Amino acid sequence: MARTRKNSPWLKEKSDRSGFDSFDRFGKRRWRSVKQNGLTLEPEEFDTPPPSTKSLGGSSISQGGNRVNWDTTAIPAVSTQQIQYISAAGGILFTTQPWIMVAGSNTAINITANPQVQLGQQGDYIAVQCVGSNVTLENGSGLSLTAGRSFVMTSGSIINLFCNRTDNLWVETARVQNGGI
């Protein structure tokens, strides 16, 4: 800011940022210019705190960002999925959601319930993901597993099942063991 007086009772200062002139009564200063990033500014031009130069992360707003609708705060239903803490005798309860998250109740579980997964309707597909303690599924008792092999699901493992009501079975269509095949 450049200061000028020239025999006037007013003090004139010019902002380095906006280029506007500011006036204050000489000798009765009610405000002082502020230095920020090498510029002399009027108090109302001062950024408190100065703008951050650090990225907030995520994708650019101009590219739409990660949210489908920028003005909603609704939480997608998949984010509110409940985890089933199962017991050996209780097995896995079928839900109408295509994704079921399960965990043993603080210990490894070998499901002994018959059926191991509650039956759905003919043609239902579900994905069961283990998100905690190990859960073991055995061939039989309502499950038809690939090549008759049992499946010890560790945290992160997923099994896809198809409901065959003719035989009252969930038939395995795919499995992923803890991020690998």
Question: Any overview of this molecule?
Answer:
The protein contains no helices and 14 strands. Helices cover 0% and strands 33% of the residues. The protein has 2 domains: 2-45, no CATH class; 82-176. It has strands at residues 2-4, 10-14, 21-25, 34-36, 39-41, 83-86, 99-104, 109-110, 125-130, 135-137, 143-144, 151-153, 158-164, 169-176. A hairpin with a 4-residue loop joins strand 13 and strand 14. The chain has a 6-stranded mixed beta sheet with strand order 6-7-9-13-14-11, with no helix packed on it. It has a 3-stranded antiparallel beta sheet with strand order 1-2-3, with no helix packed on it. Strands 8-10-12 form a 3-stranded mixed beta sheet, with no helix packed on it. By secondary structure, the protein is mainly β. The protein is rod-shaped.
